[in-house]
Amino acid sequence: MNGPVQINIPSIILSGAGAFDEAAPQAVRAGLKNVLIVSDPYLVEQGLPARMVERCRQADIAACVYGDVTPEPTDVNVEEGLALFTDNGCDGVIAVGGGSSIDAGKAISVMTANDGPLSEYAGYHRIPRPGVPLFAVPTTAGTGSEMTRVTVITDTRRNVKMMILDAHLLPAAAFVDYTLTLSMPRPLTANVGVDTLTHGIEAYVSRKNGTMTDALALSCVDLVGRHLVRAWKHPGDHEARKGMMEAASLGGMAFSNSSVCLVHGMSRPLGAVFHLPHGLSNSVLLPAVTRFSVPAAPERYAVLARKLGWAREGDDTSTACELLIDGLQNLNDAVEIPGLRDCGISREALTGALDNMADDALASGSPQNNPRVPTADEIKSLYLEAY
What share of the chain has pLDDT > 70, as a percent? Predict the structure, then answer.
């Protein structure tokens, strides 16, 4: 028998149209007086952080904005945000944006209470003290970071993506407002949508899965199967956007309390070396890694194929698994996910990076949770297959 399973999710979750406007009132209830809003340059240009500043001021909360988070957040972002937090005497953080902004906000929050550098806390359960309250307001239906105790920050000195998992990183509250995703461009909808599917799949097949995480993961997969292509084809479809936003949050809850596996283990070094967005890195790897992994957990993968609607209940396990593998590639094609060769990466550059990427993937610990645990050579072959 395994020991007890620890489940961590935010203590407050507001989901649905208008959830954005509830962050400031909840900050008042939490006793916050002065918050740092963490976001990215695109959303600053669109005016969303300013809208949150206005909501805070209406609630008599002072607010300032750190709006320079990069698409793959770095330790420099964390240091800059922390300096602004300190200079302005803030007592809480509201992260408004995609997974990058929320991940940066998490790191800023815990670094208000812990001595640096952030790299000391890379890995599992290494953060000594909780930080200030963090509120997460996602604007993309992808990473599920608003629900997780995980952050991924690039160490610019070593050019390595640090995965940090600790309960102290969990947001105090999440405000899941699907209307914020209605203006997402198609490529982003595709990348983060398949990223969400990857979270559901990996949480379900992980060696650390459990009854509760299975339920969350399968709900995530079901929603993606019903809504992703529709949201991509019809960006203003409220029902599809709502379904994908809920899928992202459910996927975040699932993988944060189960684990991610080989796709994520391989995608982090791929993103670090070639500067691909996280969702795209996962998406291009998912079909090849699934094909590799299926023999070690065919019954589980067959369940996923049926949940996605790609296999019928009467299909045997082998048939369902084949339909899943084909379906993942067909999904990438349907939402125009490019292959690695179409991402500006030459085969020579990829080949030259294989040794380091395989070593970094294994060092992350995620591949060891995969149903089929790969060797370094198998990881190299999978990168080439995805190309």
Answer: 99
